Amino acid sequence: MKVRVLGCSGAIAKDCRTTSFLIDGDILIDAGTGVGDLTLDEMQGIDHVFLTHSHLDHVAALPLMVDAVAARRQQPLKIHALAGTIAALKAHIFNGVIWPDFSQIPTPQAPFITFHEIFCGQTLEVNRKLIEVLPAVHTVPAVGYAVTAGTGCWVFSGDTERNPAFWERVNQLNVAMLVIETAFSNREKDLAKLSLHLSPCVLANELDNISNDRKYPIYITHTKPAETDLIMAEIQKFDETSVSGPNVTHDIRWLRAGQEFDI
Questions:
Q1: What CATH number labels 2-262?
Q2: Mapped to the 3 state alphabet, what secondary structure does the chain carry?
Q3: Is residue 109 over pLDDT 70?
Q4: How far apart are CA 117 and CA 84, in angstroms?
Q5: Are 77 and 67 in contact (CB under 8 A)?
Q6: N- to C-terminal Cα distance for the chain?
Q7: Which of 96, 235, 240, 249 is most buried, taking the most CB atoms under 10 A from its CB?
Q8: Alpha-carbon span 25 to 205, nearest angstrom
Q9: Nearest to 202 by CA among 190, 217, 213, 218
Q10: What average pLDDT does this structure show over 2-25?
């Protein structure tokens, strides 16, 4: 299974694209501005979009992508999301005002997109991959995902704050790599808490939930461009002090757009 990072920034700036991951060329996890780096053929090859939640940095490119390739597709693009996310998309994006309602165009019987409700804890089989819907704690209904093609799991936290249920399930999985958000630096930890995002000091506590017998690379995503260097310095500092206990450190890395992983 190949995972391609299209975007992993918490906001836009030069060379900063918001959250989107392409899996094996046919599944999109979130549809942030990173989707804009795909060719038309690559966008046309996507059959399924799994959304973590409705915030703009995770869905901004979705209506534009549909518009770009809808006429080239033979089947509707399937959009998988929580009921609350689907309701938000229908009310605020595909509403005929901000963007055409492609769930009814060109006809209700043969639309360009279809919506498919998912539930936390559900596992779907899509194109020979298993996609498990994981819990997230955010300001709107939100989830994370674990995706596997039969070996290890690629795990994505989505946007979240403290999340015991997430770690309980992750500790039961064969994790090949974890992608976890840390949107704000410690100096903005109060704002992070208010907006239900992680800061390095809270991330340190969250990583304490990883079982002692588990070791896998942890990639930091969703950093604000103006604070990325500070966030990574703060994370490096806490990891060097072995926050998880004596002689325990984590393999923490910075996720970058353009990276590809074979899992």
A1: 3.60.15.10
A2: CEEEEEECECCCECCECECEEEECCCEEECCCHHHHHCCHHHHHCCCEEECCCCCHHHHCCHHHHHHHHHHHCCCCEEEEECHHHHHHHHHHCCCCCCCCCCCCCEECCEECEEEEECCCCCEEEECCEEEEEEECCCCCCCEEEEEECCCCEEEECCCCCCCHHHHHHHCCCCEEEEEEECCCCHHHHHHHHHCCCCCHHHHHHHHCCCCCCCCCCEEEECECHHHHHHHHHHHHHHHHCCCCCCCCCCCEEECCCCCEEEC
A3: yes
A4: 9
A5: no
A6: 5
A7: 235
A8: 35
A9: 190
A10: 97
Domain ranges of the chain: 2-262
**Is the peptide bond prior to 106 cis by the omega test (within 30 degrees of 0)?**
yes
Task: Report the C-alpha gap between 249 and 154 in whole angstroms.
Answer: 20
Whole-angstrom Cα distance, residue 119 to residue 229?
A: 36
pLDDT tens-digit map of 56-92? 999 999 999 999 999 999 999 999 999 999 999 999 9
pLDDT category of residue 238 using cuts at 50, 70 and 90: confident
Residue pLDDT, tens place only, 122-176? 999 999 999 999 999 999 999 999 999 998 999 999 999 999 999 999 999 999 9
Q: What is the mean pLDDT of residues 38-43?
A: 98
Is residue 198 a contact partner of residue 206, using CB atoms and an 8 Å limit? yes
Residues near 125 by beta carbon (within 8 Å), at least 6 away in sequence? 131
The pair of three-digit structure tokens given for residue 156, joined into one six-digit string: 């994505």
Residue 243 confidence (pLDDT): 46
Q: Using CA of residue 83, residue 87, residue 88, residue 93, what is the dihedral sign?
A: positive
Mean pLDDT score across all residues of the chain:
94
